[in-house]
Design a protein that fits this description.
It is built from 13 helices and 11 strands. By secondary structure, the protein is α/β, with parallel strands linked by helices. The protein has 2 domains: about 325 residues, Alpha-Beta Barrel (TIM Barrel); about 60 residues. The protein is globular, with a radius of gyration of 23 Å. The termini are far apart.
């Protein structure tokens, strides 16, 4: 068993490259960056309970879309890989330690962790050996053993491999709470600079299209449905879908990344796009390329939330001439400085979509304003502050009962 934990440690230690459900605290409360918002992080903690042969098992504190907090094991089934992606520590030919589990072996190891309370859910991916179809079968077999043989009913996020077949995608959707396909780049041209043997349309985008098609065309069915019909998702609803981009690895602009993100949100029903800033890995073709600054990753997340939750169109985002987002201000603040300084928003009359354009007013804040003003007019910033509005950010762009809001920050 000690050997199994050593292998698990090796496989899970590099999973900070895969953003997902981890808890993260990021400044800017008018965006859903908080401990209750599925925001990404590269932080992890080792769980040292003494029940794992004194090995560090990398379990991430995570929050699900319903607000539930769990301990999430993020790991690979195998770090052996036949693909030579330029940015990846597990690329073919790189001198690094490899480890592999068979489906039954891994499923039982995870259940041992779950029984001890070390892990409550899992994000499972894999290096690819023998093609995407064969690798996907191993992931599916692992999930099937967990669900139907060992009775695991907790959270499961399954990776869909490049080149997986439609039937495999559908099977994954009947086993998992979330499925994901890493696009890595916003288009074929950029992908060729990161992963020259991956096919953007056929291998990566197509499975995401199948996920959307299955959700739209196949009804939700209960477990008592007629034999031969698939159960629509393990929880009797189809799972959510997400993707990840490597930000800065292929010379792409923010405009390119967010154009792809906007398409995925609008047309493929994607729940979330993750952005993993490029960091060079020694002994890879991109080892001498500079890392992407953390602020760029943060700005991409902020802009993606404006597209998904705040009613912004891609054309409204404040891109600079080179297609990059401004670094000095977040995109909502930059938009407001151009559009709202001379046309401030009247808090007592604005529609929800207008309130959401104001920096410092988030989704919950807008709802609170709409609720409270049905009873009385809002005439001062203290009333907004009581509703959780970040008045220091919002005040320059607001009218309160026809008057400019005046904000004086505390001296001490």
């Amino acid at each position: 068993m000690d050997d199994a934990f050593v292998r698990l440690q090796s496989l899970s230690s590099q999973m900070s490259l895969e953003h997902g459900e981890e808890i993260c605290f990021v400044t800017g409360k008018d965006y859903p960056f908080s401990s209750t918002a599925n925001a990404p992080t590269t932080e992890h903690y080792p769980d040292k309970t003494g029940g794992c042969g004194n090995q560090d098992i990398f379990v991430h504190p995570a929050v699900l879309s319903n607000g539930q907090r769990i301990k999430l094991l993020k790991t690979l089934l195998s770090s052996a890989c036949e693909r030579d992606c330029y940015y990846c520590p597990f690329r073919a030919g790189r001198d690094t330690r490899r480890a592999t589990f068979q489906p039954e072996e891994f499923a039982r190891l995870f259940m041992a962790l779950a029984t001890k309370g070390i892990a409550e859910g899992m994000f499972l991916s894999s290096g690819m050996v023998g093609g995407g179809i064969r690798t996907q079968d191993k992931l599916l077999d692992t999930a099937d053993i967990l669900r139907h043989k060992l009775g695991f009913r907790g959270y499961l996020h399954l990776k869909i491999m490049p080149g997986a077949e439609r039937a495999q995608v559908e099977r994954a959707m009947t086993l998992a709470d979330r499925v994901s396909v890493n696009l890595e780049a916003p288009n074929s041209q950029r992908l060729s600079k990161l992963a020259p043997h991956k096919q953007f349309i056929e291998e990566l985008l197509q499975p995401l299209k199948w996920v959307d098609e299955i959700r739209r065309t196949q009804p939700r069915l209960s477990s008592s449905s007629t034999a031969g019909h698939p159960i629509a998702g393990y929880q009797r609803h189809w799972p959510s879908s997400v993707t990840q981009f490597v930000a800065g690895g292929a010379g792409e602009s923010d405009l390119e990344l967010l154009t792809a993100t906007d398409y995925l949100y609008r047309l493929l029903g994607l729940r979330r796009a993750y952005f993993s800033r490029f960091n060079p890995i020694p002994n890879t073709p991109l080892e001498n390329q500079p890392p992407t600054p953390p602020i760029r990753e943060q700005r991409l997340y902020q802009a993606s939330f404006l597209l998904r939750d705040y009613g912004f169109d891609l054309e409204e985002l404040p891109f600079e001439a080179d297609g990059r987002l401004p670094v000095q201000n977040d995109p909502k603040q930059a938009w407001a400085q151009v559009n709202l300084v001379e046309r401030p928003v009247e808090v007592n009359r604005a529609e929800r979509h207008e309130l959401l354009r104001v920096p410092g007013i988030g989704l919950k804040g807008a709802e609170a304003i709409l609720r409270v003003r049905r009873q009385a007019k809002l005439r001062d910033l203290s009333a907004l502050r009581a509703l959780g509005i970040l008045v220091g950010r919002a005040a320059p762009f607001l009218l309160l009962d026809g008057k400019r809001a005046v904000y004086q920050p505390a001296l001490f």
